[in-house]
């Protein structure tokens, strides 16, 4: 039996979303590890084809019991050549595990916004020929580039939006979003949005109004990115 992809959930509302749908569609087995419910972090990446880390409202710098073992697991996966994929908090965990630092971004970024793709072979490998594309953002922190990693994309509000290190990909943005997730996050985070003074935070009404236009092309990009990542899975 092929080894599964481990999908790590750090917060109840930030689950696998489209990534889970994509893996199921491709016939790739996956296992949800709900760290928010106290599921223990595996001691090794050996039993998995890949590791995918979702988002969460906490900081990598918080004193949470599961963060040190997750950082060690990421380092173990990289050492074994087991591909790692990070979304938002997941990318921050990857940066921290690989020697980077995570700090507050000058601007909170919430809603739809474009990222510019670097002019490099690595960026084209992961994102295709697009020079820029729209994604969904919800973050207040940012990461530094780990040693040996290559910066793939950035935005006006946050220059560090995606990095790759061989088969490992970290994305500050959320390509995994579905319509249900966008609506749920807007409902749960309405107070955060309304209290923000950041020019990079969209009002809820604007996020929902733009969703029919922005979500389908982002999902197509997610399908491409996940397909590239899957090519490196350890079978």
What is the terminal separation in angstroms?
A: 9 Å
**CATH level-four homologous superfamily name:** Class I glutamine amidotransferase (GATase) domain
The CATH topology: Rossmann fold
Total helix count? 7
Work out the radius of gyration.
16 Å
Structure classification: alpha/beta
Estimated share of beta-strand residues: 25-35%
* Strand order, sheet with most strands: 2-1-3-4-9-8-7-5-6
* Overall pLDDT confidence: 97
What features would you describe in this structure?
It is a single chain. The chain has a single domain, classed as Class I glutamine amidotransferase (GATase) domain (Rossmann fold, 3-Layer(aba) Sandwich), CATH 3.40.50. The protein has 235 residues and is α/β, with parallel strands linked by helices. 35% of the residues lie in helices and 25% in strands. Helix 2 crosses helix 3 (89-97) and helix 5 packs across helix 7 (204-230). A nine-stranded mixed β-sheet has the order 2-1-3-4-9-8-7-5-6, sandwiched between helices. It has seven helices and nine strands; from the N terminus they run E-H-E-E-H-E-H-E-H-E-E-E-E-H-H-H. It has helices at 17-25, 67-80, 89-97, 121-127, 179-188, 190-195, 204-230, and strands at residues 5-9, 30-34, 50-53, 84-87, 102-117, 132-143, 150-154, 162-165, 168-171. It starts with a strand and ends in a 5-residue tail after the last helix.
Summarize the topology.
Layout: E1 5-9, H1 17-25, E2 30-34, E3 50-53, H2 67-80, E4 84-87, H3 89-97, E5 102-117, H4 121-127, E6 132-143, E7 150-154, E8 162-165, E9 168-171, H5 179-188, H6 190-195, H7 204-230
Parallel strand pairs: 1-2, 1-3, 3-4, 4-9
Antiparallel strand pairs: 5-6, 5-7, 7-8, 8-9
């Amino acid at each position: 039996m092929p080894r599964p992809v481990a999908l790590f959930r750090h917060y109840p509302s930030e689950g696998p979303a489209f990534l889970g749908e994509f893996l199921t569609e491709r016939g790739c087995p996956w296992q949800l590890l709900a760290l928010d419910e106290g599921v223990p972090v595996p001691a090794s990446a050996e039993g998995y084809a890949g590791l995918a880390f979702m988002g969460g409202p906490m900081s990598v710098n918080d004193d949470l019991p599961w963060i040190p073992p997750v950082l060690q697991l990421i380092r173990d996966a990289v050492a074994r050549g087991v591909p790692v994929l990070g979304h938002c908090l997941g990318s921050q965990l990857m940066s921290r595990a690989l020697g980077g630092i995570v700090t507050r971004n000058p601007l909170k970024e919430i809603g739809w916004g474009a990222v510019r793709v670097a002019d490099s072979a690595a960026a084209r490998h992961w994102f295709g020929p697009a020079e820029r594309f729209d994604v969904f953002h919800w973050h207040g922190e940012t990461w530094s580039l780990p040693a040996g990693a290559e910066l793939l994309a950035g935005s006006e509000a946050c220059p560090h939006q995606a990095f790759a290190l061989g088969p490992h990909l970290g994305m500050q943005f959320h390509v995994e979003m579905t319509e249900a997730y966008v609506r749920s996050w807007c409902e749960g985070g309405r107070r955060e949005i309304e209290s923000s003074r950041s020019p990079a935070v969209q009002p809820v009404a604007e996020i929902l109004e733009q969703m029919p236009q922005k979500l389908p092309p982002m999902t197509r990009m997610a399908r491409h990115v996940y397909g590239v990542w899957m090519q490196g899975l350890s079978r």
